[in-house]
Amino acid sequence: MSDAVKGLEQIDPVAFRNALGSFITGVTIVTTCDPEGNFVGLTANSFNSVSLEPPMVLWSLGLNSGSLPAFRQAPWWAVHVLASEQEVLSGRFAKRGIDKFAGLEVSLGPGGIPLIDGCAARFICRTAFEYEGGDHAIFVGAVTAFERAQRAPLAFHQGRYARVLEPAAAVAPYAADDTKFGRHFLGHYLGRAHYELFNDIRREYRKRGLRGTDYTILTVLGIDDDCTLETLVARAARGGVEVAPRAVEDLELRGLLRLTDGRVHLTATGRQMVIELIAVAQASQARIEDRLAPGEIAMLRQLIERLIDTAPLTAEAAG
Ligand SMILES: Cc1cc2nc3c(=O)[nH]c(=O)nc-3n(C[C@H](O)[C@H](O)[C@H](O)COP(=O)(O)O)c2cc1C
Known about the structure:
By secondary structure, the chain is α+β, with helices and mostly antiparallel strands. It contains twelve helices and 15 strands. The strands form four sheets. It has a seven-stranded antiparallel β-sheet with strand order 3-2-6-9-10-5-4. Strands 1-11-12 form a three-stranded antiparallel β-sheet. A three-stranded antiparallel β-sheet has the order 13-15-14. The longest helix has 24 residues. Flavin mononucleotide binds next to strand 3 and strand 5.
């Protein structure tokens, strides 16, 4: 054993794994088929480029992987570089003992290997070499064909999925016309997003004869159904809504809330309406979540939280 390899015995495997996790990678699914034609595949982030001429790539496969015998025998395999919205697929192909291809539409590549669609890139390879690599087998493939799509890639960092943000310079600059409101005003742009995302909910409360202010009052009480009028007004103001005492009285007349000793409560009818509006909000939220990958939603939340946390944002509040 060389000194360099002996040194490894002192290395704490968990610390080593964590240090490796500092290296950001993409995420791939490598597929092949066994001699009986059964589809085989797994999630792998050990993929890397090797050579441009001739075109070659590599990845490593754990010796305890159930897929090892198939990859050792198969002449062909395909590396799918996953797109950001394919996180769920990555999770599926990282599980053992399940039918990873169940319900998945695939086309067939050379040797009958399964090819998955919707990826950021795909490389068809023929095994050129297999090397020993400790507890992994290293497969080097000669690339015979590849495809690339304009899709944002899925990333992996410190044991978690991540997303790649376009460098600011690569994002098309917005025409910042000083004489017009436009997308370059973040507050303006966020307001536009809020308006779009609220379409379903707005339609629903209007159908019930409510206005935006009424909806805000009900949602504040839906969170805390026993607050003073002052607290209610202050909480609504945090969302940018001015609540006039008249609006509270109107809702009381409609039997949706009750004002007793300066405190505001929902009535049974008011509570029922809040529950129905929450159901519409949840359905609307599910539709929004369908359009974004879980990581993108998390990223959006983080950015919005940072914007809120960096308050006071306004010159008035700062002064
Ligand atoms: C992001 C990510 C990257 C992974 N990279 C590799 C890898 O490069 N090589 C490997 O053998 N396993 C890797 N795995 C683990 C395999 O996907 C996992 O062990 C899988 O269950 C193996 O399936 P099999 O036993 O059916 O072959 C990775 C898992 C995840 C979530």
